[in-house]
Amino acid sequence: MADKVKKRYLFPEDFMADPSVHVFDGKLYIYPSHDWESAAPDDDFGSEYDMKDYHVLSLEGPDPMTSPVKDNGVALDIKDVPWARRQLWDNEVVKGRDGKYYMYFPAKDKTDIFRCGVAVSDSPTGPFKAMPDPIRGSYSIDYAILHDDADDEYYMYFGGIWGGQLQRYEDNLAKDNGTSYPADGQPAIPARVVKLAKDMLQFAEEPKPVVILDEDGTPIKVEDNERRFFEASWMHKYNGKYYFSYSTGDTHKLCYAIGDNPYGPFTYKGVILTPVFGWTTHHCIVEYNGKWWLFHHDSGISKGINRLRSLKVCELKYNPDGTIRTIEGMDE
Ligand code: FUB
């Protein structure tokens, strides 16, 4: 049974999606993708998501359900990223040990391969200055970062199949043109996790698979579309446990799995959000002012146009055993 909870459209003035949310010095900032009505074709490669810039939103008050949301303008434009050709997808921003703000973003390079760019700013609202090249050895999409209070390290979670190109990679090497998938019965293609280097500009190690186990301790399989990882990683900690959450893509759910450390393995626990109105589903989970919040998007305002999505927020609750209460996505 899913809970019907009150939701808020955070910024109905413009189409934005893929929220990554962080609280810096007590203030809440939202880092979304910036949708627009591009003429790019609608296909399984996600060509319709043809975004060109990022804006940073900030919450001007204590309550995500009611406080005003401010658009702080363009934080990064694709024309200022020397290596990027198209498609600025989901971005992530963290505060480094040096007090600067680091934005991580996917874009297709001149050969149409997704890489992870880094851009730096002195302010959480930007503008961000892009590094001349993407991170060495980076690939695929949807970079989300945990700054772990246990060891003061930054762990990046990433990947997305189909248009996100994750199926191209094995042992971190490109193996084909993205058209082959493991056979049914094999473990599903995993998201990846990698520790960032101390300078925040490169990986400190080779990315590793994020293994999601079912209740029997067996990796979730390729054909298990209701539970397998598709895209949109997020990591948060609750009561010392590591909660890896993600989208199941073509079955349109947000699910989660719990582990004891940032690398996993993680054990599948259930659904956070049932399908929303629109194809993609993408989220983050953040504690703010003593409550937990689920930020996500749907295509409700555009009446179902997948490339025109809108940001939403609602409260998220845990059961006493640490599991997350499932929220109904389609409630309006
Ligand atoms: O916004 C483009 C892509 O759509 C994101 O990277 C995915 O997570 C999906 O929301």
Task: Give a concise summary.
By secondary structure, the protein is mainly beta. It is 0% helix and 41% strand.
What does this structure look like?
With 332 residues, the chain is mainly beta. It has one domain (8-316): Glycosyl hydrolase domain, family 43 (Tachylectin-2, Chain A, 5 Propeller), CATH 2.115.10.20. It is 0% helix and 41% strand. It contains no helices and 24 strands. The protein has strands spanning 8-9, 16-24, 27-34, 53-59, 69-77, 84-86, 92-95, 101-109, 114-121, 129-130, 144-148, 153-158, 169-170, 173-174, 191-195, 208-210, 212-213, 231-238, 241-247, 254-259, 266-273, 283-288, 291-298, 310-316. Strands 6, 7, 8, 9 and 10 form a 5-stranded antiparallel β-sheet that branches. The mean pLDDT is 97. The structure holds beta-L-arabinofuranose. The site of beta-L-arabinofuranose (FUB) has 14 residues, from strand 2 and strand 18.
Order of helices and strands: EEEEEEEEEEEEEEEEEEEEEEEE
The unique ligands bound to this protein are:
beta-L-arabinofuranose
Q: Cα-atom Rg, whole angstroms?
A: 18 Å
Low confidence ranges:
none
Q: Report the top-level CATH class.
A: Mainly Beta
What CATH architecture label applies?
5 Propeller
Which structural traits does this protein have?
332 residues, single chain, xylan degradation, mainly beta, 5-stranded mixed sheet, Beta-D-xylosidase/alpha-L-arabinofuranosidase, hydrolase activity, hydrolyzing O-glycosyl compounds, Glycosyl_Hydrlase_43_Enz, binds beta-L-arabinofuranose, globular, Tachylectin-2, Chain A, hydrolase
